[in-house]
Amino acid sequence: MDSRLILVSLLIVFIQFNSATWASTNTDDATALKSLLKNLPFTWVGADPCVNGWEGIGCSNGRVISITLASMDLKGELSEDFQGLSELKILDLSYNKGLTGNIPASIGSLKSLTNLILMGCSFSGQIPDTIGSLTNLVVLSLNSNSFSGVIPPSIGNLYNLNWLDITENQITGTIPISNGGTPGLDMLTQMKHFHFGKNRLSGPIPPQLFSSKMTMIHLLLDNNHLTGSIPPTLGLATTLEIIRLDRNLLSGPVPSNLNNLTSLTELLLSNNNLTGTVPNLTGMNHLSYLDMSQNNFEVSDFPSWFSTLLSLTTLTMEFTKLTGDIPVALFSLPQLQTVKLRNNQITGTLEFGSAYNSHLRLVDLQKNYISEFKPGLEYEFKIILVGNPMCQDEGNEKYCTPAQPNSSYSTQPKHSCIIPFCSSDLILGPNCSCAYPYIGTLVFRAPSFSNSGDSSDYKSIEQFLMQLFRSLQLPVDTVSLSNSTMVDDYLKVNLKVFPQGQDRFNRTGIFLVGFALSNQTSAFSFIADPYQHFEEVPSPPGAKKSSNTGIIVGATTGGSFLALLLLFAGVYAFSQKRRAERATKQSNPFAKWDQRKGSGGIPQLKGARQFTFEEIKKCTNNFSEANNVGSGGYGKVYRGILPTGQMVAIKRAKQESMQGGLEFKTELELLSRVHHKNVVGLVGFCFEHGEQMLVYEFVPNGSLKESLSGKSGIRLDWRKRLKVALCSARGLAYLHELAEPPIIHRDIKSNNILLDERLNAKVADFGLCKLLADSEKGHVTTQVKGTMGYLDPEYYMSQQLTEKSDVYSFGVLMLELISARKPIERGKYIVKEVKIEMDKTKDLYNLQGLLDPTLGTTLGGFNKFVDLALRCVEESGADRPRMGEVVKEIENIMQLAGLNPIIESSSASASYEESSTGTSSHPYGNNSAFDNSVGYSPSTVQPK
Known about the structure:
Elements: H1 2-6, H2 8-19, H3 27-36, E1 57-60, E2 63-68, E3 75-77, E4 90-92, E5 98-100, E6 115-117, E7 124-126, E8 139-141, E9 146-148, E10 163-165, E11 193-195, E12 202-204, E13 218-220, E14 225-227, E15 242-244, E16 251-253, E17 266-268, E18 273-275, E19 289-291, E20 300-301, E21 314-316, E22 322-324, E23 338-340, E24 345-350, E25 362-364, E26 369-373, E27 382-384, E28 427-428, E29 434-435, E30 438-444, H4 455-471, E31 476-487, E32 490-499, H5 507-518, E33 524-528, H6 546-556, H7 560-570, H8 574-587, E34 609-610, H9 613-619, E35 628-631, E36 635-641, E37 647-653, H10 658-671, E38 682-686, E39 693-697, H11 704-709, H12 718-738, E40 743-744, E41 753-755, E42 761-763, E43 770-771, E44 780-781, E45 785-786, H13 793-798, E46 800-801, H14 803-819, E47 824-825, E48 828-829, H15 830-837, H16 862-872, H17 883-896, H18 901-905, H19 928-931, E49 934-937, E50 940-943
Parallel strand pairs: 2-4, 3-5, 4-6, 6-8, 7-9, 8-10, 10-11, 11-13, 12-14, 13-15, 15-17, 16-18, 17-19, 19-21, 20-22, 21-23, 22-24, 23-25, 24-26, 25-27, 34-38
Antiparallel strand pairs: 1-2, 28-29, 30-32, 30-33, 31-32, 35-36, 36-37, 37-39, 38-39, 40-43, 41-42, 44-46, 45-49, 47-48, 49-50
């Protein structure tokens, strides 16, 4: 864990404290110490730092190993006299605004230094190149100063460095990269924290900075002058958790492989000049904060994949040219708090549905084109719709008034204070005690909170801080937060730390509190004000002051500093991290996937909603028989209704089914990455309690086979069959020619073509499909599987599967459409029968004896339809057309039949007839949908 590496030096220091024996201070150490800190505003007791236990100075066996003097109001410049402190491991001079000038080049002589913390001072000049010789350095915090010049390339020599923070300085130049014998930051493969925000860095982001060897978790390059494109190599740094590239001058498209960063929790790309399409981030299941506002993306429909980001708390997409309707599913994301979509081109009707997330605090859709809002219950969250056409209608005033700024959070007393004020300049604390608190500002560089005004976020910060201080046994009574502001997506909150048992801290208390806040591993910093209310405790001459030795005693008592290390290691971004952890189970559901059962590796998803077993159980009424709409070799299918009102079909595999496990994996992987109106939609899945369930969109009019056989009661005339053929062909063409890599279905048949309420056809059942990843060969060598009668004979003989194998099956389906006969019926094969009976010199090619009587009498384009079907079933795949060609030919045939293929395939009111006794059954609700497939090998034929 990264925090253990960052603070490993602390373990060394305080283990040494545990076994230290007091001795006279080394002469070189004493001389260097007195010279280095000659500008202290107070005087230490005694002449010997180690023997007399000087405050803020840690010793071991007479050597000075730590200097921690945060918030001591130090003034002046650091002297060059570092050389004598050869055993110094920690130097923390944070929060001393009076420290000015350059860091002396002699800092490079501190070869034992592990922690150099100079944050929140007023140092200036260039960071000395000699820092690159501190090869034991683990933590380097130089943030919130006035450093200028370039980043020293020599920092690349610090191979143990884990934390590098130069935020909020005036650093210029490019990010240094190694070149020949010159070091660079790409050499820091062990460094996890790159905090470079709010500087003046220029030039491109070097592609060499990222590789699969890097272990970085924070990349903060915001608020600089970086140019060029985002390098695709960024997708190799898969350990990243936070990326901030906002407020730069970046251009070009966002790399398509960015969604490889599946551990990412926060992504900010706003305020750049990025172009191209909005990047698809499907699969980023830990992503909680997303902001891509103020860029030059192309006009695009509102991305449906937003609704798959289960950990999302904040979505900000302002000025991004989004169009279309916002899907209701977005508002049911389990962690969502804030949605900011101002100044886009969003249209249509705004609905939240009945299952909107109770965590929602703000939905800001100002200046869009929303024409209607359908409010449901009285919403507890803020809705802002100013500047939309709907605001011209009466009754919407509540949502169409300018937003008032959020009132800043302020910690309230835990109970009513008898005396609600303090005398003099003391401050009233949350526990109603008056004291001089330690005051400063917490700055969150990664916006872990939604900034929606939710008090629970701030309360979680308070709880974290108190847990931290108590684990260290520090003299802290309570903390309070106030005056929160957001500047450049940096959340700044005023912090007051109140002392325990007295009205002020002594110096040791400030050392410890300041050291705890400056040595942290989260994406926040603390900038303290000078503390000027110290309680002076006189000490006997020559005695070690108890307050001075507290840093050592406190570190050893009960292993309190070890508790600090473990606490830091376990806490990341406070409440936001806890929310992400609650979503971990949802985003990593396959921990118990057993690869030994022949089901292959763990499913690799590109976005699919995970349902809990309890959710499925509830929406199917505990898997009641009334909702059982089918069963077969794979398992059972149930009808269900989600809380949103959406009807779904739930295919529940038999437990301990090896075949079911493989088909479950295959279908889940494929349907999670394909989206087309003529491919059945996957709503989600359930994989827990030993269950494997797939949740599909409900397709109400059953399978094509049921309609052709008369079982569904739906009468398909010639026009409707042409429409079914066109929709099915378009679905297959999408799989073959637009999916990447191409998908071969391998089991096209009438059972796997489903009809929706408008009789639009959808290709279904992907349990046998294969990816055509090897484009050079153009085929996949695999065991022969498919369904008797539809199977490509070339594939059967060679075991080489191609897209043309699906084309053959589709040709058989076309002949089934005109005949309503099974491909093999009474020992006769439909392909052979058509070829025997066909006579092109006669009307309808002399096929009247094979035609379905319900086709009707007007069969425009019939001959060309048969010609196309027979081309599809040519013995050689090379002689068969591609599915894209098939689509175009069916469109031409429809025009011969007097139909408009565009209107017909998207008709909103297709009509059909049902017999008086016919009933429309569920598409998955028949045994044949499971049992008609058989597995083949060249020498055997056996049931699957």
